[in-house]
Every structure is written in C-alpha cells, then in structure tokens.
Amino acid sequence: MSFKNIFCSLILLVLISCKTEQHFNEKKLQIAFIADVHLQDVFAKFEDNNYQGIKNPVTGEYANIRTMNAQLHSTRIFNENYFAFLEALNDIVKRGIKQIVLPGDFSDDGQPVHVRGLRKILNEYSQKHGISFFVTTGNHDVVRPFSQDAAKTDFLGKYGKEQIISSSKNFDKTKSELEPIITSDIKNWGYKETIQEMRDFGFFPKKTDLYWETPFSNYSYEHYNFEEAQKESVLEKRTYLIKNTNLYLPDASYVVEPIKGIWLLAIDANAYVPNEKLSGQPDNPHDFSGANTGYNNVLIYKSHLLNWVKKVSAEAKQKGKILIAFSHYPMVEFNDNASPELKQLFGADKMQLQRVPDEEVAQQFADAGIQIHFGGHMHINDTGVRTSTKGNTLFNIQTPSLAAYMPAYKILTIHSDSELEVETVVIGKVPKFNSLFPFYEEEYAHLQNNKSDHIWNKEILKAKDYAAFTNWHLKELVRLRFLPEDFPAEFLKSIVNLSGKDLLLINKNALEIDKDLKSNAVVVSDFESWTGFDMIFDFYRLKSADELAVSEIGKKRLKEYELVCRQLKKSNNPKQILWAEIFSKTMNGEPSDHFIIDLKNNKIDNLSVK
Q1: Which of 265, 377, 563, 605 has CA atoms 20 to 30 A from the CA of 34?
Q2: CA 170 to CA 538: how far, in whole Å?
Q3: What separation in angstroms does the CA of 346 have from each of 336, 337, 352, 361, 532?
Q4: C-alpha angle 110/190/267, rounded to 5°?
Q5: What is the pLDDT of residues 465-486, one digit of tens each?
Q6: Cα distance between residue 410 and residue 341, in whole Å
Q7: Does residue 146 contact residue 224 with C-beta atoms inside 8 Å?
Q8: Range list of β-strands (E), 139-267
Q9: Cβ atoms of residues 356 and 334 within 8 Å
C-alpha cells in the first residue's frame, strides 16, 4: 500500500472515530439541577401600581431591589442572584443540556411579580433552546398553603432609604422612611395560584411526556394517556387529609418520564403543621405554620407520600426505569455527621439544626427504594450517604444555591442504570453582577449620615466577580448575624480574637507540638497570620461549600487548622473540644464536587483533582 493510501486510511479512521465519539456524546443523558434560585425579578413592573422602583444613577435603568443591609443579614442574596441565574442557564445551554430541575425555592417568597418573572424566563429558554424544566415547591414558594397578604420593609428607595412595599395597608407604618407602596403583586401566593402559574414545568402533564402521575392518580403505566392524566391532574383531586383535623391541603408531587427510561420523581415535601386551635374559616393561611422543617414533618403529616414513593420505586425497578428523586429538603443529615456536637455546643435551636432530618427519614426513604435524591433548602454543597438496617443505601446530593456562597449548580450524567456521575459547576463570573452597586453607594452614604449601628463593610463593593461577592456576603453574614445570634458569648470570647498561634499553644505541650509541626513541614510563625475569627469564617465556608472552599482557604491553612484541632481536643475546656470535633468533621465529608456513584455496589468515588 502506498504512503498516500495509508495516509487516507488513517484520516478515514480518525473521522470515523470522531463521528463515533460525537454520536456517543450526543446520546449522553445529562440533567442540570439548580436549587434555591430565590428569583426576585429586579426589573419587574407591578400590574396594579405605577411604581417603577428607583433609577440607577449610572445606567438610567429602573430597578426594584432590596437593601444591601437586608442581604447581609439574610442567608441568601436577594438581588444579584437574578443575574447569576441567567448566567447558569446560559452555561447549561452552551453544554447542550436539555433537562433542568429546580428543587424548590425558585421564587423570593411566592410573590406574583416574581413567580411571573420566573415563568417568563423559563418560557424564553424553553422556546429558544428546547429546554424542559421540572420544578417542585419549597417553603419560600408556598409560604402558607393559601394566599396571604405580605409586606417587605427593606426594599431600597430613593436617597438610599428603606422603602416599604406591601399588599395591604394594614402594617406598622412607624418605621416607614418613605411613603409605602401598596400592590397585590407582593402578596404570598398559595398552592392554587403558584402551581397554576408554573403549570408548564412539571406540575401538570404535557403531551410530550411519555408518562406522568401523582400520588392520587388511578391509572396505570400500561393504560396511560394524556387526556386521562389531564383529568386527574386538577389540584382539587390532589389533596390529602391533615392529621387530627378535617382539613385537606394540596400536594403538588408528581413523577414524569420526559425521556424514555428516565423517571423524575418530584416530591412535594412542604408539610404544614396545623395550629392547636383552628379558625374554622376555609382556606385560612394562618391556621398553619410554615414548612421549613421538611421531612421530619413529612413522616408525621404526609405519610401518604412514603407509600406512593414505595409504589413508584417498585414500578420503576420492575419496568427498568432509572429513578431520580428530587425535593426541596434534605433526606440525610448535612453537617458531615457533626450535628450531635453542634447541638451540644450551640443548642438545638441554633445553626439551623431544626432542619436536620432525623435518621429515620433516610432509613424510611432508602427502604422505600430511593437510591439518589437531589435536595436544596440549606444553600450548601454536600453529599450525605446512609445505609438502612435492611441494607438499602440512599445518596443525598445537596445542591448549592446561586444566591449564596459558593454559587453553583449540579450536573447529573447518567452513564448506565447503575453508574451516575455528579459534577458541580461554580458560577463565579457573572455579567452585570455589579450593575446595582451604584444603588448601594447611596444606601451606604445614607446609613453613614444616620450613624447607623453595625453598618456593613463597603469593601464588598470592590468584589472582582460574583464568587468573590458571595464570599463577602458570607463574611458579613457571619459578622453581623451568625456570631451574635448563634455563638455562645463566653465561647466566642475565648477564641475569636486569639491568633492561630495562641490556639495552637493552648495546651502548652511544646514537645508534642514541635513534633507535629516538623512532621507537617510548618513552623509556629505560620499560625500568626490568622485569628479565631478567620477559623470561624473558614468553618462557615467549609460548611457552605465543602470541597469547593478548599482552594480558596488553601491546603496549608487547612493543615494548620487540623493541627490546632488536634490540640483543642486535649483542652480542659469542653466547648473547645466540641469545636475541634465539629471543625474536624466539617473538613472531612463525603465527595461533593465531582464524583461517581455506583448504585450497584453502593460506592462513591471522588473524581476531583486532589
């Protein structure tokens, strides 16, 4: 064979190989998960009020935003996450992913203006890019089961002052710096209104679905047809009796087969606890508490869901379907198994410990057949694994929020019915993320003029990108809220201002410390560059972002924390011992950045670069 023929043959082989690889990639099934979007449509207009918001002194655009002060006292950003959400969607479009799941808290607080704004965005991406969205409810989407009046006192108004916007005239006007704005667009919608507005995103069947059902459907997979599913999907037929009452509430759970062989199981885990004394009025939102506790109350008040999940899981297995479950709330403990120590040190009502699911939750759902579940709610990046006494394993993937540190979403790649890859994508660079900063300059000047207490740090306005902005958000949140509200005062005083060196030498065991330092190639002076506050802040970074925070903190600093924890565990102070235990566990969780789950052998393997 001539050189020319050999060359042509090689080219042909390369082309065939590329074509085959391209074909494989096209067939690769990927699903993106974006949790806790908390969309506030900063450019929306009210339908019943001409108020446009305030004019940006740089761009001239009108915007309706919350104050920076409000953002830095909240576990979520209110304004800039609008741009981060669009950037995440654009990133997903570039990757060619066509299925997107939103596991709850897709809105700010279920306000008409923001739910409508989200629907418009999702419709645009559906129509332009052929993306299918599947959503479920969170505690911020349906604050109470029925619509209720609401007000926000912390919108940013003219001259940098706080602006009240309310759906009712009945509120405390004594704190009003500006004339309040009244609009029904700021009320909290209930199930009826929210589900109707978001109907095209999983809550109701579509003709393109291969299958769709709810816990209340009475048809079978074999005899499924769209018309019957439509009849069964009306909200009036999707209700359950609340324990110890004669009241019925809606349940928006569903399972859908958008692609042959894949079942997406959307669990509506909003469980509203009735008051001891009920009003006797129909559809009274004030007869119930909020739903932020999650699965601990599901087991009590929505036991029908567990039975349905068992049925769906069994059918999926029997029919050879890959079952991917998602809901707003975690099914597995999310503090790297440090919850008992956190409870001892901080108290059961601190550190959001009331949201930690009981071990029974993981046991019950693992035995019900759930192997992989994507949750949100906590605004953290985490992986939890539990194996029940019967030998069933549940992998709980906590999806980070784009409205908090570290802003990211998850991609699930389905390689086979037993091999699933999970990758975390950080949305660090966001166009226009700082376009609202001129507003905050005015707010800061106003707060300074009023000599406001605990004024926020203006350095946040120098953030180079969105990731840095969320880092600043967390740092200020720790300073302004978490330290004064969560930390025991005496314990905080005992460590917050100490240097790393002070913490290292707390036991004055020079020989042992010297040995530790030598074996880890560090010196005492390395510990002088940081304080107890830095350690606390990095604890929150690890708690929020897990593996995603490692590169920002640095492996050298983490090694220093490890050595300090080793010494604190030998302290005579029980609180310092608990703190060391908590910190150590927080540094050593399951893989949470990029990993493979083997459902057949119940294994998880880290793919992240060490």
Answers
A1: 605
A2: 43
A3: 16, 15, 10, 23, 17
A4: 85
A5: 999 999 999 999 999 999 999 9
A6: 29
A7: no
A8: 151-156, 162-166, 181-182, 211-213, 239-241, 248-250, 254-259, 262-267
A9: yes
